[in-house]
Amino acid sequence: MTTTLKHTRYIISQNGITFGAFSLFFGFVLIAVLGNAIAPYDPLASNSAIALQPPTALHWFGTDQLGRDVLSRVIVATRLDLGIAVLAVAMSFVIGSILGTCAGYFGGWTDRIVSRCIDTLMAFPLFVLAMGLVAALGNSIENIIYATAIINLPLYTRVIRSEVLVRREAGFVEAARLTGNGDWRIMARHLFPNVLPVMMVHLSLNMGWAILNAAGLSFIGLGVQPPTAEWGIMVAEGATYIVSGEWWLALFPGAVLMLAVFCFNLLGDGLRDLIDPRMRT
Amino acid sequence: MARYSTGKIVGRRILGAIPSVIGVVIVTFLLTRSLPGDPAAFFAGPAATAEAIEEIRQNLGLDKSLPEQFLIYIGELFRGDLGVSLTTGQTVLYDLLTRLPASLELTLAALVFAIALALPLGILAATRPNSWIDHGVRLLATAGVSLPTFFTGLFLIYVLYYLWGIVPAPLGRLDILNSPPPQITGFYLIDSLLIGDLGLFWAAAAQLFLPAVTLGLFALAPLARVTRASMLGMLSSDFIRTARASGLPPRQVLFGYAFRNAMLPVVTTLGVVFSFLLGANILVEKVFAWPGIGSYAVEALVASDYAPIQGFILTMALLYVVLNLLIDLLYVVIDPRAGVES
Amino acid sequence: MRRRSLIKTSVGLAAGITLANGLKACSSAESPSTDAASDSSSDGSSGAKPTDARLTMVQGGGFPNSLDLHRVGTNRPAYGISWVMYDRLMTFGQKELPDGTLSYDYTQLEPELAESWEMAEDGMSVTFKLRQDATFHDGAPVTAQDVKWSYDRAVSIGGFPTFQMKAGALENPDQFEVVDDHTFRVKFLRPDKLTMIDMAVPIPVIINSELVKPHLTDADPWGAEWLNVNDAGGGAYQLGEFKPNERITLTRFEDWKSGPLPQIQEVIVLNVPEAGNRRALLEKGDIDVNYDLTEKDQKEIAAMGEFTMASTPIENCLYSIDMHTNAQLKGAENPFADVKVRQAVAYAMPYDAIMQTALYDQAVPMYGEGTFDPDSTTWPQPTPYKTDMEQAKKLIAESAYPNGFETSLAFDLGNQEWAEPTVVLIQESLAELGIKVGIEKVPNANFRSVLVEKSRPMIVNNFGGWLNYPDYFFFYAYHGQDATFNGSSYQNPEMDKMIEAALASKPGEPEYAENVEGFIEMAWEEMPRVPLVQPKLSVAMQNNVSGYQYWFHRQLDFRQLEKA
């Protein structure tokens, strides 16, 4: 454990970017946790007297069509956006892990069936599948999470399956088996923990993608319901104002959205270095 | 490790893909049927009476039970009939045939742009690992993949077209003055050259520029990353060290030896990126009024127009199968040692 | 006398068209409206010379999806193409509105493909003389056989065209008779004030039957598949190029005989789905006409003063909030069945805020100015309700729901620009009454189902009839027949009685005014729908484009436009 810590410190000290990404990540988490408490205004309160004002000292990010404070909406949206990403990724991770571990460990028919299903899923244009799912189920936050989770499922299942496959016959598994551990116990206690580090990288990279995916759905009109603040929908709606000169409506949420995805991507890189130092040299 | 002839590989691959394709057909059918809108009510028009809606429902065959509808759909599929799009009023086959080249042209152009940028950046980063250049490249590539494409697209339009006026209007594949070349390949860039119309070629290229850049930015990260990693691996390998030690000029070592051998993973990634872009260009197509299959699918979905959605997803699934096959074959071509395992 | 019978006929027209097709969401996304701007009109007298001008336009809310408007699923923008590519026997005249703009005149039928016509003495048939020199785009002369085939097709093909023809008592191919090559007779089944007018609406186009016949099959006896993508017309413009969902080009048919040759030689209709891009194209001068504008763009483009704008209130059209009035909804008790709740909601509407922030003041307010005892048959007219939270709170306290309730408000994603801010403002305002409103954004295609099923407690509705008669608006929006656009599913026998009585009488008769004022009064008391505004429809054109005229089908008539 201490070596890991040391290694972490080494990586971070060696790599300013990863360090930056880590700090940024904690910043986002902090904003998400505090949410409403640090928003300067009520993100839902309209005020037609100050509609569509460019950024001022009072409203750093300007105001939207209904006179709502864009900064407050961006802040409050953090929790929702990170929430969608975390839940979606967690869901596909859990289901993908179970499917992948079983497929890899048992092989045979289990493997064949799981692999077939995953192949079928992979053959879909994934964004269209997500669109179709949200359209069919109705556009609510839960359904956006489900759809995002489903289209991420193949990734986890495949990666875990191959990782487990490699280790299935490894000595430590064999040893566990000989000492009388059952299949499930071996999978849960011995195989899965070994695969976990590799998955962390994918988790992080995937978070960014999940946020982008939700934003894309919003752009087509399949996002969350108004007046909920969400980055993607703020960008999508703000985009129609760009030509008429109200650039701040799309720019600020867009920039924050990008920063968050950026942060997760860099974090993924950093984790990769941490977990598998060989990959960096 | 048995080896198979190319023909056998293709055959096996296609056979192996059949269950997936069947799965896609079934899932898509169920998905479209569970869309909440009622196509009969939608296409009957706003003033339609209940009988009028019912009549249209019968016309569209939507009054039949689901299994029945499915059998009819499968039957038509076997005859190569993908149905008619109610939104565009054309057969789905016609729509897909005219629109697929647009999407492919856009995606390929984006890929070319991404490669042109990612390879030099990746090599640059690999030759100076952990320098500020390396970090800069990494940041740049990651930033590209972090942008929502529709946002990038709209912003580029605003700045480059609306404010500066240095790119043509976002009007799809050609500006107002030009009419498209006769369809030979469906790729305007190629068709215009085939008929020897250089003006048209440039017009099409100008229209293609901005959407391709928008989409290409998205492909930058994976390609640059793989190039870098692969080059790094090569540069630290024994034979490069030997080459260096034997006094070969650095340029020759870099490009003649290391780069050539580092291409294999890049090509594999290229295939993955291509199929990914093909799906990701939906939003870009919408922003740039690009008449591809992505924007087609979005419109059909919004109108609960079943046939085009089914046709689109099926096309993409088949495309995916073909693409994977091509990657495998390419792999064999580049590195004959690889072979293909059963 | 003649005037009166024409009015009578036109009321009939309203009935027929409304019955079949006139009801539509009057969103700006779907339809152009009215106003001819400035100087010139293209009726024969002003005599615009044909030039080689080329007109480019962009259009939102769908791209023409067929060249055959008899096909199932043909959308509204396609009417504009069909309108100029095909001729009808007759067309409508032109009139100047009080504000100086031009509109079609439904009291005047004018010759198009028919040179003249004559009513039989018994009034049971009409005989048309076709122009001797008229030809189709392929040069074939237009004959009475073509006319008969086209009319036969319209009454036989089924779906909307057949329905529309029926509205004018045109039901059976036996009614249509070829007298000689250039004489065509329509026999009436019964006297019907609608029949003549129904022959000048977009549906009965004259098709080049000889051109279509080789493409007929048993499965497709009317050549729907072929006509869908091919031009078999004889109208002022012929098809240049049709790339579905991309572009349509139309070129002037130089041998057109049914009217003055249009000034514009080529029309290009481009599909640009993003509203922002459409506006940018106009501002950069890359296109001539931007043909549907959001309220925000109406305001801002007009403020720029660099373009010719045409912006007119849409006749007989209202944006409103409809509350479901049945006692039960989806098996649960429905609070909006309580009239006090509905009135409270009407008083709690943040009208001015909606007008300013959602509609950018680009609509006609329909609130606050009216009285509970209406003394005019003008429609739409403002309600007596204005934002009054005290009154609203009082009413809700008196209702069966003094502590409020939870409900939802659905809107059509297609109207997002104005509907979304509107519902957010309403949500905020109703919260003060203890009414917790969840917002439901419904994709385009599904909203039609929402309207048909009447499954939501509150919806944002936009509804308008083609012609300006309150009784027809009420017949579809308040009558117990519970038509699609009766978003409140409002059913009240007394209301029905007054609406039916108004339908049976004519404007100008005391009975008519009495009933119209009666049902408006009842609507204000019962408040099943809260009218917000009468929307405007806007077109922005480069300054060298003129000749714009309002048509009831709300499409541009390229034949009338001119470009300097």
Automatic annotation (TrEMBL), chain A:
- UniProt xrefs under SUPFAM superfamilies: MetI-like
Entries under Gene3D superfamilies matching the protein: MetI-like (1.10.3720.10)
The alphabetical list of record keywords is:
Cell membrane, Membrane, Transmembrane, Transmembrane helix, Transport
Q: Which residues form the ABC transmembrane type-1 domain?
A: 78-268
Q: Which GO terms describe its cellular component?
A: plasma membrane
Subcellular location field: Cell membrane
Name the membrane topology term.
Answer: Multi-pass membrane protein
Which positions, given as ranges, span the membrane? 16-39, 82-106, 118-138, 144-160, 247-268
The keyword NAD is assigned to this record? no
Major localization listed first in the record, in broad terms: membrane
Q: Which GO terms describe its biological process?
A: transmembrane transport
Give the similarity note: Belongs to the binding-protein-dependent transport system permease family.
Q: Which PANTHER family match?
A: D,D-DIPEPTIDE TRANSPORT SYSTEM PERMEASE PROTEIN DDPC-RELATED, OLIGOPEPTIDE TRANSPORT SYSTEM PERMEASE PROTEIN APPC
Q: What is this protein called?
A: ABC transporter permease
Automatic annotation (TrEMBL), chain B:
Where the record annotates domain ABC transmembrane type-1, the positions are 100-331
Q: What does UniProt give as GO cellular component?
A: plasma membrane
UniProt cross-references to InterPro entries, sorted A to Z: BPD_transp_1_N, MetI-like, MetI-like_sf
Which domain of life does the UniProt lineage start with? Bacteria
The record's subcellular locations are: Cell membrane
Give the family, as the similarity comment puts it. Belongs to the binding-protein-dependent transport system permease family.
The protein depicted here goes by the name ABC transporter permease
Membrane-crossing ranges are 12-31, 106-127, 139-164, 200-224, 262-284, 312-334
The molecular function GO annotations come to: dipeptide transmembrane transporter activity
Query: Membrane topology type, per the record?
Result: Multi-pass membrane protein
Asked if Cell membrane is a keyword of the record, the answer is yes
Any Pfam family hit: BPD_transp_1_N
UniProt KW keywords = Cell membrane, Membrane, Transmembrane, Transmembrane helix, Transport
UniProtKB/TrEMBL annotation, chain C:
Top-rank taxon, per record: Bacteria
List the subcellular locations.
Cell envelope
Q: Which organism is it from?
A: Vasconcelosia minhoensis LEGE 07310
Q: What is this protein called?
A: ABC transporter substrate-binding protein
Question: Low complexity composition bias: which ranges?
Answer: 28-46
Q: Name one GO molecular function term.
A: peptide transmembrane transporter activity
Asked if the Swiss-Prot or TrEMBL record annotates the protein with the keyword Amino-acid biosynthesis, the reply is: no
Q: Which SUPFAM superfamilies match?
A: Periplasmic binding protein-like II
Q: Which residues form the Solute-binding protein family domain?
A: 109-483
The entry sums up its family as follows: Belongs to the bacterial solute-binding protein 5 family.
UniProt keyword annotation of Ribosomal protein present:
no
Q: Which UniProt keywords apply?
A: Signal, Transport
Q: Where is this region: Disordered?
A: 28-54
What positions belong to coiled-coil segments? none
One family from Pfam that matches here is SBP_bac_5
Which cellular component, as a GO term, is one annotated location?
A: ATP-binding cassette (ABC) transporter complex
Gene Ontology BP terms: peptide transport
Q: Signal peptide position in this chain? A: 1-20
Q: What is the lineage of its organism?
A: Bacteria, Bacillati, Cyanobacteriota, Cyanophyceae, Nodosilineales
